Structure formats: C-alpha cells, structure tokens
Amino acid sequence: MANVSVYNMEGNEVGSMELNDAVFGVEVNEHLVHMAVVQQLANNRQGTQKAKTRSEVSGGGRKPWRQKGTGHARQGSTRAPQWTGGGVVFAPVPRDYSFKINKKEKRAALKSALTSRVEAQKFVVLDELKLEAIKTKDFVKVLNNLNVSKALVVMGDKDVVIEKSAANVPDVKTTQATLLNVYDILKYDTVITTKAAVEKIEEVYA
Q1: Region Disordered: what ranges (predicted)?
Q2: Quick one: which H or E segment has residue 3?
Q3: d(CA 187, CA 152)
C-alpha cells in the first residue's frame, strides 16, 4: 500500500496514512482517462449553435436574370451560398454532443487519475480542514503553508465555510469526495484532501 504524509493546516507533518491500492495504486490506463475527459467536455457542450441554410434565409425567390444570353453565369437565386447574404453550406444546427461510457470504465479512469496524482507526489492529505469563519485570507494562508497554488480541494462532506472561503481564490476548486471527476483531478496541479475524505473515497470507489 502507498504511504503518504499527513499534514496539519500549518503545513507541518503530523503523521502518515496508508492508501488503499484498489483506488490509489492501480495501473494507470491513459486511454480510459482520455476517454473520460473527452466525455465530460462533450457532455458540457451546449450544442446550441445555428446558422441558416439557403432554404431558411429571407429573399431570393426570383431568378435574378434569365438563364441564357446575359454574359453572366447562370443563377437561380440571390440567396445561394456564393452570394452575399446567401445561406451557409452545411450550416450547423442544434445538436447533442454527449455520449456515454460505461460505469466500470468511468470508475477505472477515476482510479487511474488518483493514482497518477499519488505517484507524482501531488496528493496532499490534511488531518482536518476547518475554518472558524468565512475568510478568504485564512484559506489562502493554509494554501501558502502547504506551498500549493493551483489545487483541487476535496472534502468528505459539504462545508459551506470552506466553499465560500475558497470561492474567490483563482485556480482553486472545492468539491466533495462523492462528486470527484477525472477532468478536475487532472486540471489542477495538486489534490488537497482530508483523512475523512480519503476514507470516503476508498469507501465509494474501492
């Protein structure tokens, strides 16, 4: 089992913790990780872009000039794609970009992402993360003590004080152990979590 140091909010090492290899010590599958990231980004797309085809733009009902004898190329409508104000060829229409990957693949991708953070020594465990009041300054102080800037902060349960204290800190996102996703784990340089959150992750994903 992988062994990681446990720190307090002052940045001092106060112990160590064994991580479950079933979650934090798997073989990293880059293909599944890539697929999970692509799926999440695709599912987030609105797909609401729209442009008009030649059948939808206004005007152009009359043939602009007769077929032969004018010296011009033949034209059937002033709203054909080659005309200014004409329709768009193969215009985009609203569509759904989302696709599914099965639960086993998604779970394996998440474990791979967590394992990669542990292997890169970018997985920081705190004994606890508690603030007495909503104060951005206090939260930033904890980050500075840990020498971390761009971080994903994982909590065992919802903590409004931590969430609101971190809300205005750039390059920091807070989430709960049960809401983890591959994209967030990889997007942020460091994963900061508590012992309680690690136990919940192992309970949910092992």
Answers
A1: 43-85
A2: strand 2-7
A3: 8
Do 188 and 120 contact (CB within 8 A), yes or no? Answer: no
Tokens (6 digits) for 52: 């008009």
CATH number at residue 30: 3.40.1370.10
Residue 104: other Cβ atoms inside 10 A: 9
Q: What is the pLDDT of residues 91-106, one digit of tens each?
A: 999 999 999 999 999 9
**99-151 pLDDT, tens digit each:** 999 999 999 999 999 999 999 889 999 988 888 889 999 999 999 988 888 89
Q: Which domain does 14 fall in, by range?
A: 2-45+98-205
Q: Are 39 and 99 in contact (CB under 8 A)?
A: yes
* Residue the block writes with tokens 């696709």: 99
